[in-house]
Specification:
Layout (H helix, E strand, L loop, with lengths): L33 H10 L4 E4 L8 H10 L3 E12 L2 E8 L6 H26 L6 H5 L10 H10 L6 H6 L17 H10 L3 E4 L11 H9 L4 E5 L7 H12 L2 E4 L19 H10 L10
The chain binds adenosine monophosphate, zinc ion and fe (iii) ion (2 copies).
């Protein structure tokens, strides 16, 4: 698979309907391999998709092959972990160069920290519950980006909680005694890294219950190359969403909508939110670190 792109200029897209640009496989905390994720998206009628696993690009080749053989256009993507003060910020990146040195250093540091953090959290949890590191490993594909969802799956397998939701509401909650922070860059660094690798940075679920990021931080992200916001996401809520809509219109930013599908790990269904063809064209025109893969 040749990923290196140079920007496409004016694009003539081989699909007419909207796309879903936020899907997770078992290379991070989705529950299915990339090919099955593409199959699920195709079943919902989608014709343009992106794979956006947390802090890894490992699933791109399998996903591109599966998507295009089903007649779908594939955009390589990732959801990069960042943090502002106490809150986690997720930066979606599309069409960046997966071999860019800065991206590679950043994602490998985050993945290493996630592993250490998951082990520490498991040690803490194991003092009160019958679960050990091997149980988490058993829930994780070799080489995948480890996250709290894998600990949740181990707790479910052990019959200690019903589902991921119950685990996140209790044992894995940030205010729980078992919680440990992971290393994550600040959002401006994350945006700059994706833009510097030729990619298109978009803030994922930017209007969740925690509210909007501060205005000055948003301005610095825009200066660092932020391209837009994922306004179509089930976790976004008013009134923050309305304020972002006005910002996006005023600054003529890119707007996406996506499902954030995680297989059976979340109720989210491919296509429940979508991104318009016009916006997909803007992303493709702007991305120059890797290329979209069109069906042959
Ligand atoms: P982590 O990055 O390891 O701190 O875990 C956060 C990830 O867990 C997010 O990216 C979500 O995809 C997932 N997650 C958060 N809350 C829930 C929930 N209530 N149910 C299932 N998955 C969740
Ligand atoms: Zn996730
Ligand atoms: Fe996210
Ligand atoms: Fe996500």
């Amino acid at each position: 698979m040749q990923w290196h792109g140079e920007g496409s200029g004016t694009v003539d897209l081989p699909f007419a309907g909207p796309g879903d640009l936020h899907l997770h496989s078992d290379w991070s905390d989705g529950t299915e391999p990339p090919a099955d994720v593409m199959l699920a998206a195709h079943r919902e009628g989608l014709r343009c998709v992106a794979l956006t696993d947390h802090d890894t690009t490992e699933g791109w080749a399998e996903a591109a092959e599966a998507a295009t053989s089903l007649g779908m256009t594939f955009l390589p993507g990732m959801e990069l972990s960042a943090r502002h003060e106490w809150r986690s910020v997720h930066v979606l990146g599309y069409l960046f160069d997966p071999d860019d040195a800065r991206i590679r250093a950043l994602t490998s540091r985050i993945r290493d920290s996630r592993l250490t953090r998951a082990r520490t959290m498991t040690d803490r949890i194991s003092r009160d519950y019958d679960v050990e590191w091997a149980d988490i490993v058993a829930q994780t594909v070799d080489g995948a980006t480890v996250g709290r969802p894998h600990i949740a799956d181990a707790l479910v397998a052990k019959g200690l909680v019903r589902d991921r939701g119950e685990a996140f509401a209790g044992i894995l909650h940030p205010r729980s005694d078992y919680y440990v922070d992971l290393y994550a860059p600040d959002p401006v660094t994350a945006v700059a890294a994706i833009a510097g690798a030729g990619g298109v940075p978009i803030i994922a679920h930017p209007a969740g219950r925690a509210g909007l990021l501060p205005v000055d931080l948003t301005e610095r992200m825009l200066e660092a190359g932020l391209a837009g916001f994922e306004l179509g996401h089930r976790e976004n809520v008013e009134p923050a969403l309305g304020r972002l809509r006005r910002l996006v219109e005023r600054e003529d930013l890119i707007v996406t909508g996506s499902s954030d599908y995680h297989g059976v790990g979340k109720p989210n269904v491919p296509g429940e939110n979508t991104t318009s063809v016009a916006m997909i064209a803007r992303i493709i025109e702007r991305g120059r670190g890797s290329s979209p893969v069109f069906p042959s």
